[in-house]
Structure formats: C-alpha cells, structure tokens
C-alpha cells in the first residue's frame, strides 16, 4: 500500500472532489445539500477550496467592461438578508414549537399590544413587533436609547410549552446574534443594555426570539427554531 | 488560513445588510480577478460578462452565508465565480467537452498553463506540490479545476475507465494535502 501515498477518508475525498469540481450534476447537488446540514463536511469543503484556491489566484485579472457595475446595480433586488436568514431558520428545522406558539397566541391574543408611543416622542425611542412568518405578533419591544432600557413583552399565554424557553436575540448589522436573555410567556423582560452593545441598537436592526431547551442555547446563536422576528424602528 | 487578515471581510456583513455601496467596493476590489476566472473557464467574453453579473447577484443574495472563520473573501467569491462559470459551461451542452484526448496533455504542458500558477507566494507551494504528482494526475487536476470537467468527461477525454480516473485524482488530492502540510 505504500505506493498509494497518504490516505484520506471517503468523506474527505468527497469534500475534495466537490471543491475541485469533478462531481457530476447529481453528486454535486447532493454534496451541496450535505454542506447545508453537516457543518463538519462544509468545513472540509471550505478547507479544500482554500487549498486549491491558489490555482485561481494565478489567473491574471482582466478588467470587466465599464458599465457592467451599473447594470449589476440596476438588477439588484432589495436585500434583507438578515431577516431572510431568520425566516429560513424558522421554516427549516421549525417548527412545531414555533407553530404551536403562534396558534396559542392566536387563541389568546388580546386586542392591541402595549407599546403605544406618546405623541411627539423623542427620537431615542425605538419599537419593534416580533412576528411569526405568518405575520402573527408574538412579542413587542420598546427601547429607550437614552436610558439604554429595553422592554420586551411576551404575548404568548403564560404556561405555554413549559418544556422550552424563549430566548431573545439582538441581530445587529454584522448579522451575528447576541443573546439578550429569556422572555417568559406572558411576562415583560426589562433589561439595561450593556454599554458595549448599546451602539449596536439602532433603527433597522432586528430582534428575534428562538425556542430553546431550558437554560437557553449553548451556542453563540440560536439552536432552536426562530419563533418570531422584527426590526426596531422609530414610530 | 482563518487567522489571515482579510480587509475585504468587513464588507460582507454590510452587503448582507443590504448596503449597495459595500457591494460596489467589493466589486471594485474583486471584479478584475473574478472576470479573469470567468474568462479562463468560458473563454467567450460575452458569456463571461453575463456570468460575472450573476456572480455579484449571488454574492448580494448570499453574503449572509459568508463565514470569515472558514474562508477568505477572495476564495469565497472566486468559488462562486468558478461554480457559476462551470454551470454555464455545462449548460452549453456536451459538444464543448468533446475535445480530442490529446488536448488535455498539450494544454497543460504549455508555458501558458504554467504561468497561471505563478504569482502569489501561496501559489508556490501548490505549484511545487502539483509538480510532485505524476504528470497525468496533475494535468487531470488542473483540467478539472479550470474547465469544470467532471470525472465522466475526464475519463472520456483520457480514454481511461472511470474508476481509474477517480483513483488517480483521489490519490493525487491526498498526496497534495500531505505535501501542502509539510
């Protein structure tokens, strides 16, 4: 066997083949699908892409024709990647928990949520309504930038789904979710935004709630389905 | 790899958040390279322009999936460009793959192909490691990379059984990895 040189596992060979581009259409689609659900495999493919990338780095740059940027810019759809990411998460691993939450709220929802801004409200107040994918509001939030105070009220009936907790996340413009703690069904979470995070809380950033096992997500981001998401805005 | 400082990485979250100015900056920094990649694979200029446009639309839509810990921006965007160009090439039908077997050998012996592998320092290690492989294998790997040729098409071109071509390439990739890690 020594003339065969070093061995790599079948999985790694597949990752390398995918990075190289020798797989046929069917296998390639399978490899893409596997990357989406298997982070270790995805990392292997990326590592192989990095290994092979210097081949492309050797390709001399060629200036594209003037005017191409303008036609790209004209064809750009409005982007809302951050929200789309969360929506996808909701649809993905979803969602009995999120769906049943929505149903529970639909059954119990009182007419109008609490956050009614005063007239001539100063600019430092931001509000958000966190909806499910079917536009069902589950949480409302208000933020006072001066005081760095965030209030988040759960519209989920108390006692709903005691096997899970609802974890609140801030998704600032860098797209990386920061945990803000747990919101109990039917209760209001009041928290002082930590000083280093306060600058991230601006109009347009998103708040989201994921459904997690007791104790909350063990990872840097949500591990359970996303129940609701909304953007902070001045009303 | 992940520890390398990547000045373009800061643009990605902005693009993901819908900042057109950031995409424009990325375009200015990368379009020459990516157009080069598209042209290298497609040859036809008009097709390369169409694909380049698709590439930036893909970057716009998928910027939220960029993970700086796993890949550099240049690698990530070049991969998109290469995949898109290869998709286009394959969509062009099988006629373009029906090249004579010899072309595979000749193409990779030319100074042109060799020159492609020169430039950045990283290239040096990969170039050296590719040259340590037997000629047949390194030329198959290069052809696959630059032309998006599948195992089936490679086997047909070389006139060798599919299983044989697979085992050359797999073994070649394993050796390449061992060599790059030295």
Describe the 3D structure:
The complex is a heterodimer of chains A (235) and B (182). Chain A has 235 residues and is α+β, with helices and mostly antiparallel strands. Helices cover 32% and strands 22% of the residues of chain A. Chain A contains six helices and eight strands; from the N terminus they run H-H-H-H-H-H-E-E-E-E-E-E-E-E. In chain A, the strands form two sheets. In chain A, strands 1-2-3-6 form a four-stranded antiparallel sheet. Chain A has a four-stranded antiparallel sheet with strand order 5-4-7-8. In chain A, helix 1 packs across helix 3 and helix 2 crosses helix 3. Chain A starts with 9 loop residues before the first helix and ends with a strand. In chain A, 36% of the residues are buried. In chain B, helix 3 crosses helix 4 and helix 5 crosses helix 8. The radius of gyration of chain B is 18 Å and the shape is globular. At the A-B interface, helix 1, helix 3, helix 4 and helix 5 of A face helix 1, helix 2, helix 3, helix 4 and helix 7 of B.
Mean pLDDT of chain B: 79
The number of helical segments of chain B is 10
How far do the termini of chain B sit from each other?
Answer: 15 Å
Number of strands of chain A: 8
Biggest chain contact: A-B, 55 and 73 residues
Count, helices of chain A: 6
The general outline of chain B is: globular
- The chain-level structural class of chain B is mainly alpha
- Mean pLDDT of chain A, to the nearest integer, reads 78
Binned strand content of chain B = under 5%
Taken in chain order, the helices and strands of chain B follow as HHHHHHHHHH
Q: Describe the strand arrangement of the main beta sheet of chain A, using strand numbers.
A: 1-2-3-6
Taking the sheet with the most strands of chain A, its summary is: 4 strands, antiparallel
Helix content of chain A: 25-40%
Helix content of chain B: over 70%
């Amino acid at each position: 066997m020594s003339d065969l040189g070093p061995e790599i596992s079948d999985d790694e060979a597949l990752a390398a083949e995918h990075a190289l581009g020798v797989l046929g259409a069917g296998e390639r689609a399978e490899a893409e699908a596997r990357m989406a659900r298997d982070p270790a495999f995805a990392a292997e493919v990326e590592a192989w892409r990095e290994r092979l990338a210097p081949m492309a780095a050797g390709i001399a740059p060629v200036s594209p024709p003037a005017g191409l940027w303008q036609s790209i810019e004209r064809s750009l759809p409005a982007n809302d990647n951050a929200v789309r990411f969360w929506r996808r998460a909701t649809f993905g691993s979803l969602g009995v928990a999120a769906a049943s939450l929505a149903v529970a709220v639909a059954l119990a929802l009182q007419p109008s949520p609490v956050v009614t801004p005063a007239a001539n409200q100063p600019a430092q107040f931001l509000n958000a309504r966190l909806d499910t994918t079917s536009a069902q509001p589950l949480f409302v939030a208000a933020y006072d930038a001066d005081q760095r105070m965030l209030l988040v009220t759960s519209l989920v009936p108390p006692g709903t789904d005691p096997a899970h907790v609802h974890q609140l996340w801030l998704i600032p413009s860098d797209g990386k979710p920061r945990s803000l703690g747990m919101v109990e069904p039917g209760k209001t979470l009041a928290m002082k935004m930590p000083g280093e995070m306060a600058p991230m809380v601006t109009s347009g950033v998103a708040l989201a709630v994921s459904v997690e096992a007791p104790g909350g997500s063990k990872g840097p981001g949500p591990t359970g389905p996303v129940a609701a998401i909304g953007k902070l805005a001045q009303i | 790899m992940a520890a390398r400082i990547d000045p373009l990485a800061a643009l990605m979250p902005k693009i993901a958040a819908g900042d057109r100015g950031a995409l424009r900056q990325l375009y200015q920094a990368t379009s020459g390279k990516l157009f080069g990649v598209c042209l290298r694979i497609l040859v036809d200029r008009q097709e390369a322009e169409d694909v380049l446009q698709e590439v930036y639309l893909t970057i716009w839509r998928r910027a939220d999936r960029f993970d700086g810990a796993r890949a550099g921006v240049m690698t990530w965007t070049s991969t998109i460009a290469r995949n898109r160009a290869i998709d286009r090439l394959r969509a062009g039908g099988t006629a373009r793959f029906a090249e004579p077997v010899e072309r595979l050998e000749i193409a990779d012996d030319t100074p042109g192909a060799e020159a492609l592998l020169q430039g950045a320092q990283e290239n040096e290690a990969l170039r050296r490691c590719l040259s340590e492989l037997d000629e047949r294998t390194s030329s198959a790997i290069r052809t696959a990379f630059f032309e998006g040729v599948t195992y089936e098409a490679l086997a047909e071109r070389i006139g060798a059984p599919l299983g044989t071509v697979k085992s050359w390439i797999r073994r070649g990739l394993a050796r390449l990895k061992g060599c790059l890690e030295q």
